[in-house]
Write a structure and sequence with these properties.
5 strands; 4 helices; mainly alpha; two-stranded antiparallel sheet; binds zinc ion; three-stranded antiparallel β-sheet
């Protein structure tokens, strides 16, 4: 089955555009000016169609990538050491577990002794930041070397910046898709009114 990348509104608008382009192309234009205007309109409608297609493709790609990112950590190999027998190897997680602080951790299964274990590093970056902050507090209490604390602080700051970049990009895209959905519903109204006008005998086949 072919993948559906269009919303119902977009499909409706496609149908209206198809109809409008057909009418504009076949309607006998009396004057040269009318003919030119009709051609310009058809070009505009084709442009709207192309815009719909390219937005739907990039939107579909974005949602797919977002979904894939959620599962990526379960598919990647990582160098880990078994907590039981200390066997060191590259493993793919067999699942995840939620720790005391509510953070999610990847669970690995040792191929040598069969122990299921996880590392101290949470899966999700926002949890890693929180876990890092907790660790810093502990390090301060234990009077760990200042350099070590500073290095960890820098790493956390870097993670925060990366997270923020992703959040801003995501928010921008979601707003773009939202604005686009509003534009599509406005255009449906516009083209529907036009279709009604033409169907009820108005000679004007131009929208504007
Ligand atoms: Zn083991």
């Amino acid at each position: 089955m072919e993948e559906e990348i269009y919303t119902d509104d977009e499909k409706e608008l496609f149908e209206l555009l198809k109809w409008t382009i057909e009418v504009s192309t076949n309607f006998p234009q009396l004057s040269e000016n009318d003919k030119k205007a009709a051609e310009a309109n058809v070009e505009e409608y084709e442009g709207i169609k192309e815009g719909l297609i390219s937005l739907a493709i990039s939107r579909n790609k974005f949602y797919k990538e977002t979904e894939a990112n959620k599962l990526r950590h379960l598919l990647e190999y990582k160098d880990v050491t078994c907590t039981q027998c200390k066997f060191f190897t590259a493993l793919k997680p067999v699942g995840e577990k939620v720790g005391d602080e509510g953070f999610s951790y990847a669970v690995y299964e040792c191929p040598k002794c069969g122990t299921k274990f996880s590392e101290n590093l949470p899966i999700h970056s926002e949890d890693r930041i929180k876990a890092g902050e907790i660790l810093i507090k502990k390090m301060r209490k234990k009077k760990v070397a200042k350099d070590d604390i500073e290095n960890l602080e820098k790493a956390i700051e870097k993670m925060r910046e990366t997270n923020k970049d992703v959040e801003v990009k995501t928010a921008d895209l979601l707003k773009l898709y939202d604005d686009h959905a509003k534009d599509v519903s406005d255009l449906i109204v516009k083209f529907m009114v036009h279709k009604q006008n033409v169907s009820t005998g108005s000679k004007d086949t131009n929208i504007n």
